[in-house]
Design brief:
Mean pLDDT of chain A: 83
Domain Glycine transporter (chains A, B, C): 10-86, 100-173
Subcellular location (chains A, B, C): Cell membrane
Oligomer: homotrimer
Helix content of chain A: over 70%
Membrane topology (chains A, B, C): Multi-pass membrane protein
Number of helices of chain A: 10
Largest interface: A-B, 36 and 34 residues
Protein name (chains A, B, C): Glycine transporter domain-containing protein
Transmembrane segments (chains A, B, C): 6-26, 38-59, 71-90, 97-118, 124-140, 147-173, 179-198
Distance between the termini of chain A: 39 Å
Low-confidence stretches of chain A: 207-219
Number of domains of chain A: 1
Largest sheet of chain A: none
Structural class of chain A: mainly alpha
C-alpha cells in the first residue's frame, strides 16, 4: 500500500500547534500551588504543542518536523506565552478552546497515520502512531509536571476518540479511498466523538468497577 | 567485528512481549488506590511489553521493531487485557510468571546486544543497549505511573543479572563464539542469576550502608 | 548555510561528561530519605553526563555519540561512582564544581548547536537543540528521580544562559564568523551568565508575581 501523507497547509498545522501550546500553558498556569516560572510555562506550552509530532517522528525514525523548519518552535513559544498572559480571557472562551482542541486532536491523528503509512509502517502500528500523535503532548506534559498521566485515569475518552478515527483512516486508506477525503473523515469522526464525550461525560469503565462485576470474573 | 543478530523465531519474541504485557497489567491492576481505567492498564501492558525494544531501537537509531510489523501491538494489548482479567489466576501462578519473566529478560538482553553489534555499535554501548532492552519496560512503567523507579532502589538485581549476561555475550561475540550459542548462554546466565536473586533475596548494598562503612570512606 | 561541527577534542568532551556524572551522583547521593542503591546512583550519574547528548542526537535523528564509541559509558559510570564515594570532598570543592559545571553547560550548548547546523537543521531549532543539550541531563534526572523538574521552577537561569549563548552562536554562524571562534564565544557567554546568576541569585519572574502585576495584565 502506497500512501501519500495527508498534507495540510503549513498554516493549519501551525494553528494546531498553537492551540496545543495555549492549552498547555493554561493548564500549567492554573497550578497555583507550584512555583512555576515563565520559562516553565513556556516549556509546557511547547511540549503540549509539539510533543505529539515529536513522538510520532521518533517512532517512525524520521527527523522531527519541528526540527526541519524555523516556524514550529517560535509559534509554540509565542502562543504558550499568550495563553499564560490571557488565561482569564481564554477561560471565558473555554467552549471555543474545547472545540478547537477536538479538531486539533483529529488533525494530529490524521497526519500521524498518513505520515507513518507513507514511510512504510504497516497498518496496525500506523494507527498507533496516529493515536500517539494525538495524545502524546498531554502524556509528556503530565510526566514533566510530575502528575499522574490524565489519559490513564478515568477520563473523557481522549485516546479512544483518536483510536476510532485512526482505525477508520487505516481501513479507508487500505481500501483505496482517496487520502484527503479519508483524512477529513478521520478529523470529523475524532472531533465528534470527543465533543460528545465532553457533552455527556462519557468515560471508560473503571478498573475497580469491573473487578466487582461478578459475571465477568467468572468468564 | 561483524555480528549477525541473535535471531529468535517471531513466536518466541512475541511470547516475551506477551509475558511483559501480562506482568505490566498485573502490576498496574494491583494499584487499587489509583483510579486507572481499562485503557490505562492496556497502556501499561503495552509499555512493559514493548518498551525495552523501543528504547533499544531509539538508541541505535533504527525503526522500532514494533513499528515494522503488525504483530507486536495487538499481542501486547491482548495479553495486557488478559493479565488484567485473570489477575487472580496469575497470582496463583506467580512462580511460573517469575520464571518466564527471568527468561524474558534474558531474551531481551541477548536480542539487544546482538542487534546493536549487528548495526555497528561498539562493544561497551552494545552491552548497555542489551541491559536497557531488558529493563527499559519497567523503567518506563514506573515513570508513567509516577512511581519511584524500582530499579534504582534497593531491589533484586534485575539490571545486574542483565549486565552480567550482556557483558559475557559481548566477550563471547568478540572471541568468535558462534552467535546462537553465545546468545543461549547469555539467556541462561541472566535467568539463573535472576532466579537465585529472587530465591535468596540478594540486593545491592544500599547507599547509606556504604556511607557508614568506615574503611571504604578512608580509601 | 554549511556549518562544520564545533569539534572539541575527545578528552574535553569526556571531561564535560565526567563533570556531569559527578554532579548527578552527588545530587542523588544527597537524597538521604530515599533508598537508592549503588546502581541507582550510577544510573543517575550516567543520565546527567550523557542525557543531554542523547536528547540532542534523538532530536536530529542521528546515532547517539555515546553509542558510537567505547569511551562515554565507562567514563560516565566511573565518575558517577567517584562522585558518590567522594561526596564530602566534592562538597568542599563546591565553587570549583559550579565553575566546571558552567563551562560544561557552555560546551554542551556549543556542540549541540553546531552539530544540529552541520546536519542541516535550520537556525531556530538548532538553537533549541543546543539548549536541550545543555539542560537535558538535569531534566531527565528529575524525571527519573520523580522530582519536580528544577528547570521549570523558580531557579537560577540555567536554561536562559544556554539560550543566550545558543542564539548568539546561531547568529554568528549565519554571519560567517569562523565556527571555532563562535563556539568559544558561546562557551564564554554561557559560563559568565551562569556564574553571575549564581553569584547574584538572579531568577526569572515567578508566575504568580506576574499575575499580580497590574500594568502587565492591562497590556
Amino acid at each position: 500500500m502506497s500512501v501519500t501523507p495527508f498534507v495540510i497547509p503549513l498554516w493549519l498545522d501551525l494553528t494546531a500547534v498553537a492551540v496545543g501550546a495555549i492549552q498547555g500553558a493554561m493548564f500549567s498556569a492554573r497550578m497555583k500551588d507550584r512555583r512555576i516560572d515563565l520559562l516553565g510555562i513556556a516549556i509546557i506550552g511547547v511540549v503540549v504543542g509539539l510533543g505529539g509530532g515529536l513522538l510520532r517522528d521518533l517512532l517512525i525514525n524520521q527527523l522531527p518536523a519541528a526540527m526541519a523548519s524555523n516556524w514550529y518552535l517560535p509559534v509554540a513559544t509565542a502562543f504558550a506565552l499568550i495563553g499564560m498572559a490571557l488565561v482569564r480571557l481564554f477561560d471565558k472562551l473555554n467552549p471555543l478552546i474545547i472545540g478547537l482542541d477536538a479538531v486539533t486532536i483529529g488533525l494530529f491523528a490524521a497526519i500521524g497515520v498518513t505520515k507513518a503509512l507513507a514511510y512504510g509502517v504497516p497498518e496496525v502500528p500506523a494507527a498507533f502512531v496516529g493515536v500517539l500523535s494525538a495524545v502524546g503532548g498531554s502524556i509528556l506534559r503530565d510526566m514533566m509536571l510530575n502528575l499522574p498521566i490524565a489519559l490513564m485515569h478515568v477520563g473523557s475518552l481522549y485516546a479512544v476518540a483518536a483510536g476510532v478515527g485512526c482505525t477508520l483512516l487505516v481501513i479507508m486508506a487500505s481500501s483505496g479511498v482517496q487520502i484527503t477525503l479519508a483524512g477529513i473523515i478521520c478529523v470529523l469522526v475524532v472531533t465528534v466523538i470527543r465533543l460528545l464525550a465532553v457533552r455527556f461525560g462519557w468515560s471508560l469503565p473503571e478498573q475497580r468497577a469491573i473487578a466487582s462485576w461478578p459475571r465477568w470474573r467468572r468468564a
